[in-house]
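Problem statement: downstream parser choked on a complex file, so we are re-checking the raw output for the zinc ion run. The parser issue turned out to be on our end (a line-ending mismatch), but while we're here, posting the original submission so the record is complete.
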Amino acid sequence: MEKVYNHKKVEKEVLKIWRKENLGNPEKEKGKTFCIIMPPPNANGRLHMGHALMLSIQDTIVRYQRMKGKKVLWLPGFDHAGFETLVVFEKELEKRGLSRFEIPKEGLYKEILKFTNQKKKEIRNQMKELGISCAWKYEKYTLDKDVVKLVLETFERLKDDGLIEKSERLVNWCPKHKTAFSDLEVIFKEKNSFLYYIKYGPFEVATVRPETILGDVAFAVNPQDERYKSYLNKKVKFEHPLTGEKVSFPVVFDKRIDPNFGTGIIKVTPGHDFFDFELAKKFNLPIIHIFDENGKINLKGSKYYGMNIKEAREVIVKDLELKGLLIKKESYLHSVPVCYKCESEIEPRPMEQWFLLLNKKFKLPKKLKKLTKKDYASLKEIALAGVKLIKFEPPRFKKILIDWLKQIKDWNISRQVVWGIKIPNSEDVFDTWFSSSQWPVVTLKSFGNNVFKKYYPTDVMETGYDILQFWVSRMIFMGLYLTGDIPFKKVILHGIVRDEKGQKMSKSKGNVIDPIDIVQKYGADTLRLGLLMGNEMGKDVIVSENKFIGAQRFLNKIWNATRFLILKRKEIEKLNRKLKEPKKFSQESKKILKDFEKFKKEILTLMEKDKLSLALEKLYKFFWFTFADQIIENTKKKIAQGNFEAYFVCERLLKEELKLLHPFLPFLTEYLWKKIGNKTLLAREGL
Ligand SMILES: [Zn+2]
């Protein structure tokens, strides 16, 4: 055996063995089934540290389950990632001096498909370098024909149940990306702007958006506000502050109006404000669109026509000032909704979109009746009933999810981009999460009912806590809706990968550590060890190159200890060829073995509870400080005295430790397992 641990040689040889043995293919295994559907990486970039973390955790789980005698299906896949991919591709186009709006839709789709197919290939190869034991023959892509067919069937079924509505509603619109978003894709930023006090008909009105005066249709006040009581059910006639036309606005009363904001009376712009849109529905007010898809004023004939929001605001404020209608302006700090991708201010815009109605009740099939104890319920209600059956690690995320589900609103599932699954009879495509939400069902169903029945509900969904709402919640109601069963029995959530300063890794910050670089420099086992050590589920993971350098020392330690024992065996055999393990051990040896049994039980208990990092830490400490530093050291002395029994105790312990360490450090342990004389595959040994 080589003197020094060479990760490149070890990992190359072991990969060959696993490939030959078809590791990962569930048909090669017997026993009870165990299934994880891998969160499909976006087919638009490289494998990053977040992926490496997710793959390390899941591979550890499935390897453990396999060694517990389960028939494991870990189903890999890729996501076309609709809008996300479009943004990446747009940057590629920009490098070539092009814009997506200049390329015909058909050609653009084909180009992006080619791009994602190339990326899939690259990421797949990178995943293979990590040595993960997923079932490659079950790989799925969200744009596979059979997947798309099932997604469209779901859409039809939802329509039949009356849960899809195409209607004009105010939606979150990004003027740069020219698409609508769901509420989840909108983030809020603190911004300093002005609150303008304007003489508006008979009133003084405060607003942060004077440019929307062009779309105003009413005033609104709180019914408790004494100042405006005399206007109840009245209309006011006045000269429009910008156009000078004679207009007549109703004054509506609604208790949600804050009497302490500005002067207590607000202007109502249903075309460009979510709350005002609700008021318009309640009081039957007209809705005026004043901005086009680029965020420019679309009122033909108006002097403001074609101006963008910023320009229009400046000119309109000036005009009001000239007319003596601007009373004052105050600086004002408020939070504004922005696009999660480009941080452009979101412009609420009335548009005809497809909505999934999450609060509408529908007639339940048998299984869901039993679950909810109701004949009719909404998707939200079935999700709230189903989530109770799912375990969470860490458990605190269950409450977060329930609270979120309780306030869930209708889901805008249409996007105005070319890249995605087309909504039938529409120019739009589905929100990428619409297909993702069905992932556990459609992946398994695409292999036929037998596979589906065998593995659904899946056992574990392991993913990042940052997509609990985007993905986990939606898989729960869609899984229940489509099958009557929860899609997974347990949810395990990991944190976000951050650098030493606690910052997220990003190209622009220049703090990215590429997992494949680490694999090449220190090995895939070291990468896993660095990512799993000290990583408590649900907490963010700090990653630095030093961590990997430290991790590799442990691999060297295992290598050296094993090599020492192999050499000792040869020495002993030279002295006594027929030497065998004694039938009976001494009291001292028995105690060591008994203590180890206890230790092993502790490890298995931790693994069952998904406390991977705690188990790993204990294994690390035991190997280093108890096994190598004490037991092997004592054995050296005993062998020197001609007592060989202690050697056999070491050999037993080493075998067991390699098994327990295998889910965490699969390459090195598999390699050493062979070196100490085993012919079988460690990955399929029983624990
Ligand atoms: Zn945007």
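For whoever reads this later: Residues 545-575 form the longest helix (31 residues).
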